[in-house]
Amino acid sequence: MSWGVELWDRYDSVVNQVSQSSRELDTWYGSFFKERSKIENEYARSLRKLIKTYMPKDKKKNNEDESTQTNGFRLILVELGYQAGQHELLADTYGKECSKGIDDRLKEVKKEMKKNKKEAETIEKNLSQSYKSLDNRKLKYQKAHTELEVTSNTFKKTESDGTISRHEVDKMRAMTNKKTRESDDTKAQYAHQLIQTNKSQQEYYHQLLPAVLNNLQNLAIGNCEFFKNLISKCVKHEKDVAPIVVKCHEEMENVIGKINAKKDTEITINRLKTGSVPPADFMFEELMPGMEIKSNAERTNSMSRGRSKQALNVEKGNINYFQRKRELEKKIEAQESDVLKGQKEMKSLQLMIQTYTQNPKFGDAKQFQGELDAAAQKVQLLESELHAMQTELVDVNNTLENMKNQSPSINMIRREKSPSGSLASSLLSTQVSVSSTSGSLDGGQNNRHHQGPDSGIYLTGNTTGQTSEGEEDIYDDLSAPSPSTENTSKPSLVGKCIALYEFESDSDDTIPMAEGEEFFLIDDDQDGWTKVKRVDNRFFQDIGEGFVPTSFIQSLTENKVIQI
Questions:
Q1: Which of 207, 261, 301, 436 would give a disulfide with 221, using CB separation of 3.0 to 4.6 Å?
Q2: Calpha distance 103→461 (Å, rounded)
Q3: Contact at 8 Å (CB) between 293 and 145?
Protein backbone atom coordinates (compact mmCIF):
# COMPACT_ATOMS: atom_id res chain seq x y z
CA MET A 1 0.00 0.00 0.00
CA SER A 2 1.12 3.52 -0.79
CA TRP A 3 0.82 6.64 1.37
CA GLY A 4 0.24 8.69 -1.78
CA VAL A 5 -2.97 6.76 -2.51
CA GLU A 6 -4.23 5.87 0.96
CA LEU A 7 -3.23 9.01 2.91
CA TRP A 8 -3.71 11.75 0.31
CA ASP A 9 -5.79 13.81 2.78
CA ARG A 10 -3.48 13.37 5.82
CA TYR A 11 -0.40 15.31 4.68
CA ASP A 12 0.21 17.01 8.05
CA SER A 13 -0.15 13.73 9.92
CA VAL A 14 2.27 12.02 7.52
CA VAL A 15 4.82 14.82 7.99
CA ASN A 16 4.46 14.50 11.77
CA GLN A 17 4.91 10.74 11.50
CA VAL A 18 8.19 11.08 9.58
CA SER A 19 9.39 13.89 11.87
CA GLN A 20 8.59 11.81 14.93
CA SER A 21 10.56 8.83 13.56
CA SER A 22 13.52 11.17 13.00
CA ARG A 23 13.22 12.63 16.50
CA GLU A 24 13.12 9.12 17.90
CA LEU A 25 16.40 8.32 16.19
CA ASP A 26 17.97 11.40 17.76
CA THR A 27 16.35 11.85 21.17
CA TRP A 28 15.15 8.31 21.92
CA TYR A 29 17.32 5.71 20.25
CA GLY A 30 20.35 8.03 19.98
CA SER A 31 20.23 8.74 23.69
CA PHE A 32 19.85 5.03 24.32
CA PHE A 33 23.09 4.23 22.49
CA LYS A 34 25.01 7.01 24.26
CA GLU A 35 23.79 6.02 27.69
CA ARG A 36 24.44 2.39 26.89
CA SER A 37 28.05 3.24 26.09
CA LYS A 38 28.48 4.88 29.50
CA ILE A 39 26.68 2.24 31.49
CA GLU A 40 28.43 -0.72 29.88
CA ASN A 41 31.31 -0.16 32.33
CA GLU A 42 28.98 -0.15 35.32
CA TYR A 43 28.19 -3.81 34.93
CA ALA A 44 24.84 -5.49 35.51
CA ARG A 45 23.10 -3.13 37.93
CA SER A 46 23.70 -0.07 35.78
CA LEU A 47 22.70 -2.02 32.70
CA ARG A 48 19.36 -3.01 34.27
CA LYS A 49 18.80 0.63 35.23
CA LEU A 50 19.30 1.62 31.61
CA ILE A 51 16.80 -0.99 30.45
CA LYS A 52 14.26 0.32 32.94
CA THR A 53 14.82 3.88 31.71
CA TYR A 54 14.33 3.18 28.02
CA MET A 55 11.77 0.39 28.15
CA PRO A 56 8.49 1.74 26.72
CA LYS A 57 6.41 2.41 29.81
CA ASP A 58 2.85 1.89 28.56
CA LYS A 59 2.05 -0.75 26.01
CA LYS A 60 -0.56 0.46 23.56
CA LYS A 61 -4.07 -0.82 24.24
CA ASN A 62 -4.41 -1.77 20.58
CA ASN A 63 -1.49 -4.08 19.89
CA GLU A 64 -2.25 -4.04 16.17
CA ASP A 65 -1.31 -0.34 16.02
CA GLU A 66 2.11 -0.90 17.57
CA SER A 67 4.84 -0.89 14.93
CA THR A 68 7.18 -3.83 14.49
CA GLN A 69 10.03 -1.42 15.17
CA THR A 70 8.69 -0.46 18.61
CA ASN A 71 7.75 -4.04 19.45
CA GLY A 72 11.16 -5.31 18.33
CA PHE A 73 12.91 -2.71 20.46
CA ARG A 74 10.85 -3.79 23.46
CA LEU A 75 11.83 -7.45 23.06
CA ILE A 76 15.47 -6.57 22.52
CA LEU A 77 15.54 -4.81 25.88
CA VAL A 78 13.93 -7.84 27.50
CA GLU A 79 16.68 -10.06 26.17
CA LEU A 80 19.22 -7.48 27.21
CA GLY A 81 18.06 -7.83 30.81
CA TYR A 82 19.30 -11.42 30.91
CA GLN A 83 22.86 -10.50 30.11
CA ALA A 84 23.80 -8.13 32.95
CA GLY A 85 27.52 -8.39 32.30
CA GLN A 86 30.34 -9.02 29.82
CA HIS A 87 29.57 -5.76 28.00
CA GLU A 88 32.56 -3.49 28.60
CA LEU A 89 33.91 -4.23 25.13
CA LEU A 90 30.71 -2.87 23.60
CA ALA A 91 31.23 0.66 24.99
CA ASP A 92 33.25 1.79 21.98
CA THR A 93 30.71 0.38 19.49
CA TYR A 94 27.70 2.00 21.14
CA GLY A 95 29.47 5.28 21.86
CA LYS A 96 31.18 6.07 18.54
CA GLU A 97 29.83 4.08 15.61
CA CYS A 98 26.16 4.35 16.53
CA SER A 99 26.28 8.06 17.34
CA LYS A 100 28.07 8.84 14.08
CA GLY A 101 25.58 6.76 12.09
CA ILE A 102 22.60 8.51 13.69
CA ASP A 103 24.06 11.97 13.03
CA ASP A 104 24.66 11.14 9.37
CA ARG A 105 21.15 9.76 8.99
CA LEU A 106 19.54 12.80 10.62
CA LYS A 107 21.40 15.16 8.28
CA GLU A 108 20.18 13.19 5.28
CA VAL A 109 16.56 13.11 6.54
CA LYS A 110 16.61 16.83 7.34
CA LYS A 111 17.77 17.65 3.81
CA GLU A 112 15.09 15.47 2.21
CA MET A 113 12.34 16.85 4.48
CA LYS A 114 13.24 20.40 3.49
CA LYS A 115 13.14 19.45 -0.18
CA ASN A 116 9.74 17.76 0.15
CA LYS A 117 8.27 20.69 2.05
CA LYS A 118 9.36 23.12 -0.66
CA GLU A 119 7.91 20.88 -3.36
CA ALA A 120 4.57 20.59 -1.51
CA GLU A 121 4.33 24.37 -1.14
CA THR A 122 5.12 24.85 -4.84
CA ILE A 123 2.46 22.48 -6.16
CA GLU A 124 -0.12 23.89 -3.74
CA LYS A 125 0.73 27.43 -4.88
CA ASN A 126 0.36 26.42 -8.52
CA LEU A 127 -3.04 24.88 -7.85
CA SER A 128 -4.18 28.00 -5.98
CA GLN A 129 -3.02 30.15 -8.89
CA SER A 130 -5.02 27.97 -11.26
CA TYR A 131 -8.12 28.45 -9.07
CA LYS A 132 -7.51 32.20 -9.07
CA SER A 133 -7.20 32.30 -12.88
CA LEU A 134 -10.46 30.40 -13.19
CA ASP A 135 -12.13 32.94 -10.89
CA ASN A 136 -10.87 35.83 -13.04
CA ARG A 137 -12.00 34.22 -16.30
CA LYS A 138 -15.42 33.51 -14.91
CA LEU A 139 -15.74 37.07 -13.57
CA LYS A 140 -14.86 38.54 -16.99
CA TYR A 141 -17.35 36.23 -18.65
CA GLN A 142 -20.07 37.35 -16.24
CA LYS A 143 -19.23 41.00 -16.81
CA ALA A 144 -19.26 40.66 -20.61
CA HIS A 145 -22.53 38.77 -20.44
CA THR A 146 -24.12 41.50 -18.32
CA GLU A 147 -22.93 44.26 -20.67
CA LEU A 148 -24.28 42.32 -23.65
CA GLU A 149 -27.66 42.03 -21.95
CA VAL A 150 -27.80 45.80 -21.32
CA THR A 151 -26.63 46.68 -24.84
CA SER A 152 -29.10 44.28 -26.45
CA ASN A 153 -32.02 45.73 -24.50
CA THR A 154 -30.96 49.29 -25.40
CA PHE A 155 -30.67 48.38 -29.09
CA LYS A 156 -34.14 46.85 -29.12
CA LYS A 157 -35.64 50.00 -27.59
CA THR A 158 -33.71 52.26 -30.00
CA GLU A 159 -34.75 50.25 -33.03
CA SER A 160 -38.41 50.29 -32.06
CA ASP A 161 -38.38 54.05 -31.33
CA GLY A 162 -39.24 56.02 -34.47
CA THR A 163 -37.73 59.26 -33.18
CA ILE A 164 -34.16 57.87 -33.23
CA SER A 165 -32.13 58.53 -36.35
CA ARG A 166 -30.95 55.76 -38.61
CA HIS A 167 -27.35 56.60 -37.80
CA GLU A 168 -27.93 56.12 -34.08
CA VAL A 169 -29.67 52.81 -34.72
CA ASP A 170 -26.72 51.55 -36.80
CA LYS A 171 -24.37 52.72 -34.10
CA MET A 172 -26.25 50.75 -31.44
CA ARG A 173 -26.33 47.70 -33.72
CA ALA A 174 -22.55 47.84 -34.09
CA MET A 175 -22.18 48.20 -30.34
CA THR A 176 -24.38 45.15 -29.79
CA ASN A 177 -22.35 43.09 -32.25
CA LYS A 178 -19.15 44.16 -30.52
CA LYS A 179 -20.49 43.15 -27.07
CA THR A 180 -21.62 39.85 -28.52
CA ARG A 181 -18.11 39.12 -29.79
CA GLU A 182 -16.62 40.12 -26.44
CA SER A 183 -19.05 37.86 -24.62
CA ASP A 184 -18.22 34.94 -26.92
CA ASP A 185 -14.49 35.56 -26.45
CA THR A 186 -14.72 35.65 -22.64
CA LYS A 187 -16.94 32.57 -22.70
CA ALA A 188 -14.34 30.66 -24.73
CA GLN A 189 -11.56 31.85 -22.41
CA TYR A 190 -13.57 30.75 -19.37
CA ALA A 191 -14.21 27.29 -20.88
CA HIS A 192 -10.52 26.92 -21.77
CA GLN A 193 -9.39 27.96 -18.27
CA LEU A 194 -11.91 25.57 -16.74
CA ILE A 195 -10.35 22.70 -18.68
CA GLN A 196 -6.87 23.77 -17.60
CA THR A 197 -7.90 24.13 -13.95
CA ASN A 198 -9.53 20.71 -13.85
CA LYS A 199 -6.44 19.24 -15.50
CA SER A 200 -4.22 20.93 -12.90
CA GLN A 201 -6.45 19.67 -10.09
CA GLN A 202 -6.33 16.09 -11.37
CA GLU A 203 -2.54 16.30 -11.74
CA TYR A 204 -2.26 17.69 -8.20
CA TYR A 205 -4.39 15.04 -6.49
CA HIS A 206 -3.33 12.02 -8.55
CA GLN A 207 0.31 12.71 -9.43
CA LEU A 208 2.07 15.57 -7.67
CA LEU A 209 0.67 15.23 -4.13
CA PRO A 210 0.96 11.37 -4.12
CA ALA A 211 4.58 11.74 -5.25
CA VAL A 212 5.35 14.00 -2.26
CA LEU A 213 3.63 11.59 0.14
CA ASN A 214 5.46 8.60 -1.35
CA ASN A 215 8.78 10.41 -0.81
CA LEU A 216 7.84 10.88 2.83
CA GLN A 217 6.95 7.19 3.00
CA ASN A 218 10.40 6.32 1.66
CA LEU A 219 11.96 8.47 4.39
CA ALA A 220 9.93 6.62 7.05
CA ILE A 221 11.01 3.29 5.54
CA GLY A 222 14.60 4.51 5.50
CA ASN A 223 14.47 5.45 9.19
CA CYS A 224 13.08 2.04 10.08
CA GLU A 225 15.65 0.22 7.92
CA PHE A 226 18.41 2.36 9.42
CA PHE A 227 17.34 1.45 12.95
CA LYS A 228 17.07 -2.18 11.92
CA ASN A 229 20.59 -2.24 10.45
CA LEU A 230 22.06 -0.26 13.35
CA ILE A 231 20.65 -2.45 16.08
CA SER A 232 21.57 -5.54 14.04
CA LYS A 233 25.15 -4.34 13.90
CA CYS A 234 25.20 -3.81 17.66
CA VAL A 235 23.84 -7.29 18.23
CA LYS A 236 26.53 -8.74 15.99
CA HIS A 237 29.19 -7.11 18.19
CA GLU A 238 27.49 -8.46 21.29
CA LYS A 239 27.66 -12.00 19.92
CA ASP A 240 31.46 -11.71 19.96
CA VAL A 241 31.57 -10.81 23.66
CA ALA A 242 31.03 -14.18 25.28
CA PRO A 243 29.37 -17.52 24.56
CA ILE A 244 27.28 -17.09 27.72
CA VAL A 245 24.92 -14.69 25.98
CA VAL A 246 24.68 -16.54 22.65
CA LYS A 247 21.10 -17.60 23.22
CA CYS A 248 20.08 -14.05 24.09
CA HIS A 249 21.69 -12.78 20.91
CA GLU A 250 20.00 -15.40 18.76
CA GLU A 251 16.67 -14.33 20.15
CA MET A 252 17.53 -10.70 19.43
CA GLU A 253 18.26 -11.61 15.81
CA ASN A 254 14.88 -13.28 15.57
CA VAL A 255 13.19 -10.16 16.93
CA ILE A 256 15.11 -7.90 14.55
CA GLY A 257 14.15 -10.15 11.66
CA LYS A 258 10.52 -9.48 12.47
CA ILE A 259 10.99 -5.71 12.13
CA ASN A 260 9.24 -4.96 8.87
CA ALA A 261 9.33 -1.44 7.43
CA LYS A 262 6.59 -2.23 4.93
CA LYS A 263 4.33 -3.57 7.66
CA ASP A 264 4.97 -0.45 9.75
CA THR A 265 3.86 1.76 6.85
CA GLU A 266 0.71 -0.35 6.50
CA ILE A 267 0.07 0.04 10.24
CA THR A 268 0.34 3.81 9.77
CA ILE A 269 -2.19 3.61 6.93
CA ASN A 270 -4.63 1.58 9.03
CA ARG A 271 -4.23 4.01 11.93
CA LEU A 272 -4.69 7.20 9.90
CA LYS A 273 -6.85 6.15 6.95
CA THR A 274 -10.32 7.75 6.79
CA GLY A 275 -11.79 6.21 3.66
CA SER A 276 -12.47 9.63 2.09
CA VAL A 277 -11.94 10.30 -1.62
CA PRO A 278 -10.48 13.34 -3.43
CA PRO A 279 -12.85 16.12 -4.60
CA ALA A 280 -14.56 15.91 -7.98
CA ASP A 281 -13.99 18.17 -11.00
CA PHE A 282 -15.59 21.59 -11.35
CA MET A 283 -18.76 21.71 -13.39
CA PHE A 284 -19.03 24.15 -16.29
CA GLU A 285 -21.65 26.80 -15.55
CA GLU A 286 -22.99 28.23 -18.79
CA LEU A 287 -24.82 31.53 -18.50
CA MET A 288 -28.05 31.78 -20.51
CA PRO A 289 -29.87 35.01 -21.47
CA GLY A 290 -31.90 36.27 -18.55
CA MET A 291 -30.22 33.97 -16.03
CA GLU A 292 -29.62 35.46 -12.59
CA ILE A 293 -25.92 35.83 -11.85
CA LYS A 294 -24.64 35.07 -8.38
CA SER A 295 -23.07 37.78 -6.32
CA ASN A 296 -19.32 37.90 -5.79
CA ALA A 297 -19.65 36.45 -2.28
CA GLU A 298 -21.77 33.55 -3.52
CA ARG A 299 -19.35 32.98 -6.37
CA THR A 300 -16.46 32.82 -3.95
CA ASN A 301 -18.26 30.25 -1.81
CA SER A 302 -19.20 28.15 -4.82
CA MET A 303 -15.62 28.04 -6.06
CA SER A 304 -14.38 26.86 -2.64
CA ARG A 305 -11.03 28.57 -2.49
CA GLY A 306 -10.04 26.22 0.30
CA ARG A 307 -10.05 23.15 -1.92
CA SER A 308 -6.27 22.88 -1.97
CA LYS A 309 -6.08 23.03 1.80
CA GLN A 310 -8.56 20.18 1.99
CA ALA A 311 -5.98 17.92 0.39
CA LEU A 312 -3.60 18.44 3.29
CA ASN A 313 -5.98 18.41 6.22
CA VAL A 314 -9.09 16.23 6.46
CA GLU A 315 -12.14 18.09 7.63
CA LYS A 316 -12.92 17.77 11.30
CA GLY A 317 -16.17 16.19 12.39
CA ASN A 318 -16.46 13.65 9.55
CA ILE A 319 -17.26 10.06 10.49
CA ASN A 320 -14.15 7.91 10.20
CA TYR A 321 -15.77 4.84 8.64
CA PHE A 322 -12.50 2.95 8.13
CA GLN A 323 -11.58 3.15 11.82
CA ARG A 324 -15.20 2.27 12.75
CA LYS A 325 -14.85 -0.84 10.59
CA ARG A 326 -11.68 -1.89 12.42
CA GLU A 327 -13.37 -1.29 15.79
CA LEU A 328 -16.40 -3.38 14.81
CA GLU A 329 -14.24 -6.26 13.55
CA LYS A 330 -12.42 -6.40 16.88
CA LYS A 331 -15.67 -6.24 18.86
CA ILE A 332 -17.18 -9.00 16.73
CA GLU A 333 -14.15 -11.22 17.31
CA ALA A 334 -14.39 -10.68 21.08
CA GLN A 335 -18.17 -11.22 21.01
CA GLU A 336 -17.83 -14.50 19.11
CA SER A 337 -15.34 -15.66 21.73
CA ASP A 338 -17.82 -14.80 24.51
CA VAL A 339 -20.60 -16.70 22.70
CA LEU A 340 -18.37 -19.75 22.42
CA LYS A 341 -17.54 -19.57 26.13
CA GLY A 342 -21.24 -19.30 26.98
CA GLN A 343 -22.07 -22.34 24.87
CA LYS A 344 -19.32 -24.35 26.59
CA GLU A 345 -20.70 -23.27 29.96
CA MET A 346 -24.17 -24.48 28.93
CA LYS A 347 -22.77 -27.86 27.90
CA SER A 348 -20.95 -28.18 31.23
CA LEU A 349 -24.13 -27.37 33.19
CA GLN A 350 -26.13 -29.83 31.09
CA LEU A 351 -23.54 -32.51 31.86
CA MET A 352 -23.85 -31.71 35.59
CA ILE A 353 -27.65 -31.96 35.43
CA GLN A 354 -27.40 -35.26 33.56
CA THR A 355 -24.91 -36.65 36.08
CA TYR A 356 -26.97 -35.60 39.12
CA THR A 357 -30.13 -36.98 37.50
CA GLN A 358 -28.52 -40.39 36.92
CA ASN A 359 -27.00 -40.35 40.43
CA PRO A 360 -29.52 -38.79 42.84
CA LYS A 361 -27.23 -39.44 45.78
CA PHE A 362 -24.97 -36.63 44.52
CA GLY A 363 -27.71 -34.09 45.13
CA ASP A 364 -30.67 -32.38 43.52
CA ALA A 365 -30.19 -31.72 39.79
CA LYS A 366 -32.66 -28.81 39.91
CA GLN A 367 -30.11 -26.65 41.69
CA PHE A 368 -28.26 -26.29 38.37
CA GLN A 369 -31.39 -25.54 36.31
CA GLY A 370 -31.38 -21.85 37.30
CA GLU A 371 -27.74 -21.51 36.30
CA LEU A 372 -28.49 -23.23 32.98
CA ASP A 373 -31.38 -20.86 32.28
CA ALA A 374 -29.20 -17.85 33.12
CA ALA A 375 -26.41 -19.14 30.87
CA ALA A 376 -28.88 -19.71 28.01
CA GLN A 377 -30.27 -16.21 28.46
CA LYS A 378 -26.76 -14.78 28.43
CA VAL A 379 -25.89 -16.65 25.21
CA GLN A 380 -29.06 -15.36 23.53
CA LEU A 381 -28.21 -11.79 24.53
CA LEU A 382 -24.64 -12.16 23.24
CA GLU A 383 -25.89 -13.61 19.94
CA SER A 384 -28.35 -10.73 19.57
CA GLU A 385 -25.62 -8.14 20.17
CA LEU A 386 -23.30 -10.02 17.79
CA HIS A 387 -25.97 -9.90 15.08
CA ALA A 388 -26.34 -6.14 15.61
CA MET A 389 -22.60 -5.54 15.26
CA GLN A 390 -22.40 -7.75 12.16
CA THR A 391 -25.24 -5.80 10.57
CA GLU A 392 -23.56 -2.48 11.35
CA LEU A 393 -20.29 -3.82 9.89
CA VAL A 394 -22.12 -4.60 6.64
CA ASP A 395 -23.47 -1.04 6.59
CA VAL A 396 -20.01 0.43 7.17
CA ASN A 397 -18.49 -1.75 4.42
CA ASN A 398 -21.24 -0.66 2.03
CA THR A 399 -20.61 2.99 2.89
CA LEU A 400 -16.85 2.62 2.28
CA GLU A 401 -17.53 0.89 -1.04
CA ASN A 402 -19.90 3.69 -2.09
CA MET A 403 -17.31 6.31 -1.16
CA LYS A 404 -14.69 4.42 -3.16
CA ASN A 405 -16.97 4.22 -6.20
CA GLN A 406 -17.46 8.01 -6.05
CA SER A 407 -13.70 8.66 -6.35
CA PRO A 408 -12.84 10.96 -9.29
CA SER A 409 -9.96 8.64 -10.21
CA ILE A 410 -12.41 5.77 -10.81
CA ASN A 411 -14.74 8.02 -12.80
CA MET A 412 -11.77 9.27 -14.84
CA ILE A 413 -10.79 5.69 -15.71
CA ARG A 414 -14.35 4.97 -16.77
CA ARG A 415 -14.41 8.05 -19.01
CA GLU A 416 -11.08 7.06 -20.59
CA LYS A 417 -12.47 3.62 -21.42
CA SER A 418 -15.58 5.19 -22.96
CA PRO A 419 -15.34 5.60 -26.81
CA SER A 420 -16.87 9.09 -26.67
CA GLY A 421 -15.00 10.23 -23.60
CA SER A 422 -12.70 12.96 -24.93
CA LEU A 423 -11.17 15.29 -22.38
CA ALA A 424 -13.02 18.45 -23.40
CA SER A 425 -16.41 16.81 -23.79
CA SER A 426 -16.11 14.89 -20.54
CA LEU A 427 -15.09 18.02 -18.65
CA LEU A 428 -17.94 20.09 -20.09
CA SER A 429 -20.52 17.38 -19.48
CA THR A 430 -19.39 16.34 -16.02
CA GLN A 431 -21.83 16.80 -13.22
CA VAL A 432 -20.79 16.56 -9.63
CA SER A 433 -22.92 14.24 -7.59
CA VAL A 434 -22.05 13.46 -4.04
CA SER A 435 -24.08 11.02 -2.05
CA SER A 436 -23.27 9.59 1.30
CA THR A 437 -24.82 6.65 2.94
CA SER A 438 -24.26 5.72 6.47
CA GLY A 439 -26.09 3.37 8.68
CA SER A 440 -25.83 2.16 12.17
CA LEU A 441 -27.67 -0.43 14.10
CA ASP A 442 -28.47 -0.11 17.74
CA GLY A 443 -26.40 -2.83 19.35
CA GLY A 444 -28.40 -2.81 22.52
CA GLN A 445 -31.24 -5.05 21.35
CA ASN A 446 -33.56 -6.28 24.10
CA ASN A 447 -32.98 -9.84 25.15
CA ARG A 448 -35.72 -12.36 24.47
CA HIS A 449 -35.87 -15.08 27.09
CA HIS A 450 -38.71 -17.64 27.12
CA GLN A 451 -40.91 -15.37 25.00
CA GLY A 452 -42.78 -15.87 21.76
CA PRO A 453 -42.20 -14.05 18.51
CA ASP A 454 -44.85 -11.46 19.33
CA SER A 455 -42.70 -10.11 22.13
CA GLY A 456 -39.33 -10.48 20.35
CA ILE A 457 -37.45 -7.94 18.28
CA TYR A 458 -37.03 -8.40 14.52
CA LEU A 459 -35.34 -6.13 12.04
CA THR A 460 -37.21 -4.99 8.94
CA GLY A 461 -36.58 -2.43 6.23
CA ASN A 462 -33.33 -1.41 4.61
CA THR A 463 -29.98 -1.92 6.22
CA THR A 464 -28.62 1.34 4.86
CA GLY A 465 -30.10 4.78 4.47
CA GLN A 466 -29.26 8.38 3.80
CA THR A 467 -28.87 10.67 6.77
CA SER A 468 -28.40 14.36 7.21
CA GLU A 469 -25.18 15.81 8.63
CA GLY A 470 -24.54 14.81 12.24
CA GLU A 471 -27.21 12.12 12.24
CA GLU A 472 -27.13 8.34 11.99
CA ASP A 473 -29.60 5.81 10.64
CA ILE A 474 -31.23 3.51 13.12
CA TYR A 475 -33.68 0.77 12.51
CA ASP A 476 -36.98 2.05 13.80
CA ASP A 477 -39.27 -0.34 11.99
CA LEU A 478 -39.32 -3.32 14.33
CA SER A 479 -41.92 -6.05 14.15
CA ALA A 480 -42.28 -9.74 14.94
CA PRO A 481 -42.89 -12.35 12.24
CA SER A 482 -46.51 -13.44 12.26
CA PRO A 483 -46.92 -17.20 12.08
CA SER A 484 -50.32 -16.73 10.44
CA THR A 485 -48.82 -15.05 7.37
CA GLU A 486 -46.49 -17.93 6.55
CA ASN A 487 -47.28 -20.83 4.24
CA THR A 488 -49.79 -22.97 6.09
CA SER A 489 -50.66 -25.47 3.39
CA LYS A 490 -47.33 -27.21 2.83
CA PRO A 491 -44.56 -25.65 4.91
CA SER A 492 -40.97 -26.21 3.78
CA LEU A 493 -38.71 -27.80 6.37
CA VAL A 494 -35.00 -26.95 6.31
CA GLY A 495 -33.78 -29.90 8.32
CA LYS A 496 -34.12 -31.93 11.50
CA CYS A 497 -32.95 -31.26 15.05
CA ILE A 498 -32.97 -32.72 18.57
CA ALA A 499 -33.62 -31.03 21.92
CA LEU A 500 -30.53 -30.80 24.11
CA TYR A 501 -32.41 -29.53 27.17
CA GLU A 502 -35.90 -29.51 28.58
CA PHE A 503 -37.90 -26.33 27.85
CA GLU A 504 -41.20 -25.14 29.35
CA SER A 505 -43.42 -22.91 27.19
CA ASP A 506 -44.74 -19.71 28.74
CA SER A 507 -46.40 -18.02 25.70
CA ASP A 508 -48.85 -18.93 22.94
CA ASP A 509 -46.34 -19.03 20.09
CA THR A 510 -43.75 -21.23 21.87
CA ILE A 511 -44.01 -24.96 22.53
CA PRO A 512 -42.52 -27.05 25.33
CA MET A 513 -40.00 -29.76 24.57
CA ALA A 514 -38.43 -32.70 26.36
CA GLU A 515 -34.77 -33.58 26.36
CA GLY A 516 -33.99 -35.85 23.41
CA GLU A 517 -37.21 -35.03 21.51
CA GLU A 518 -36.81 -34.66 17.72
CA PHE A 519 -38.26 -31.85 15.59
CA PHE A 520 -38.46 -30.69 12.01
CA LEU A 521 -36.86 -27.26 11.39
CA ILE A 522 -39.34 -24.89 9.71
CA ASP A 523 -37.44 -21.58 9.75
CA ASP A 524 -33.86 -20.49 10.44
CA ASP A 525 -32.81 -18.79 13.66
CA GLN A 526 -34.50 -15.41 14.40
CA ASP A 527 -32.79 -13.51 17.24
CA GLY A 528 -32.15 -16.67 19.24
CA TRP A 529 -35.48 -18.43 18.47
CA THR A 530 -36.16 -21.15 15.89
CA LYS A 531 -39.54 -22.35 14.59
CA VAL A 532 -39.92 -26.16 14.68
CA LYS A 533 -42.56 -28.91 14.25
CA ARG A 534 -42.77 -32.09 16.30
CA VAL A 535 -41.89 -35.36 14.59
CA ASP A 536 -44.48 -37.18 16.78
CA ASN A 537 -46.64 -36.67 19.90
CA ARG A 538 -44.83 -39.08 22.22
CA PHE A 539 -43.99 -36.37 24.78
CA PHE A 540 -46.71 -33.72 24.37
CA GLN A 541 -50.23 -33.56 22.98
CA ASP A 542 -50.53 -30.09 21.37
CA ILE A 543 -50.45 -28.41 17.96
CA GLY A 544 -46.82 -29.47 17.72
CA GLU A 545 -45.57 -26.33 15.97
CA GLY A 546 -43.98 -23.18 17.48
CA PHE A 547 -40.80 -21.41 18.57
CA VAL A 548 -38.06 -22.85 20.84
CA PRO A 549 -34.67 -21.40 21.98
CA THR A 550 -32.01 -21.97 19.33
CA SER A 551 -29.36 -22.69 21.96
CA PHE A 552 -31.51 -25.56 23.34
CA ILE A 553 -31.47 -27.58 20.09
CA GLN A 554 -28.86 -29.20 17.81
CA SER A 555 -29.20 -29.83 14.06
CA LEU A 556 -29.18 -33.47 12.94
CA THR A 557 -29.09 -32.92 9.17
CA GLU A 558 -27.44 -30.63 6.67
CA ASN A 559 -29.47 -27.66 5.45
CA LYS A 560 -31.82 -29.04 2.82
CA VAL A 561 -35.53 -28.40 2.18
CA ILE A 562 -37.98 -31.13 3.11
CA GLN A 563 -41.54 -30.84 1.78
CA ILE A 564 -44.34 -32.20 3.96
A1: 261
A2: 63
A3: yes
CB 242 within 8 A of CB 157: no
DSSP codes joined into one string, 176-243: HHHHHHHHHHHHHHHHHHHHHHHHHHHHIIIIIHHHHHHHHHHHHHHHHHHHHHHHHHHHHHHHTT-G
Closest C-alpha among 67, 160, 134, 433 to residue 279: 433
Residue 12 burial (10 A CB sphere; 0-12, 13-18, 19+): exposed
Give helix 261-272 / helix 68-81 axis angle, nearest 10°: 120
Helix (H, G, I), strand (E, B) or coil at 287: coil
Phi–psi pair at 236, nearest 5 degrees: -60, -40
Alpha-carbon distance of 556 to 499, in angstroms, equals 10
The answer to whether 147 touches 179, Cβ cutoff 8 Å, is yes
Region for 362 from its dihedrals, namely left if φ exceeds 0, alpha if ψ lies in -120 to 50, beta otherwise: alpha
Residues in the chain: 564
Return the sign of the alpha-carbon dihedral for residues 374, 380, 383, 387: negative
Residue 407 falls in which region: left (phi positive, over 0), alpha (psi -120 to 50) or beta:
beta
432 class by beta-carbon count within 10 Å (0-12 exposed, 13-18 middle, 19+ buried): exposed
SS3 call for 521 = strand
Amino acid identity at 331: K
Question: In a structure prediction context, what are the per-residue pLDDT tens digits for the chain, which is 564 residues long?
Answer: 899 889 988 989 999 999 999 988 888 898 888 888 887 777 777 777 888 888 876 655 556 678 888 888 888 888 878 776 677 777 878 888 888 889 999 999 999 999 999 999 999 999 999 999 999 999 999 999 999 999 888 888 887 877 777 888 888 889 989 999 999 999 999 999 999 999 999 999 999 999 999 999 999 999 999 999 998 888 888 778 777 777 777 888 998 998 899 988 888 888 888 777 787 788 887 788 877 766 555 444 444 444 444 444 444 445 788 888 888 998 999 999 999 999 999 898 888 888 888 888 888 878 788 888 889 999 999 998 999 999 999 988 888 888 777 766 655 655 555 544 443 334 333 333 333 333 333 333 333 333 333 333 333 333 333 333 333 333 333 333 333 334 344 455 678 899 988 888 888 888 999 888 999 998 888 878 899 999 888 888 877 888 998 888 988 865 443 333
- 172 contacts 158 by C-beta, under 8 angstroms: yes
- Going from the C-alpha of 166 to that of each of 158, 178, 365, the distances in angstroms are 10, 18, 117
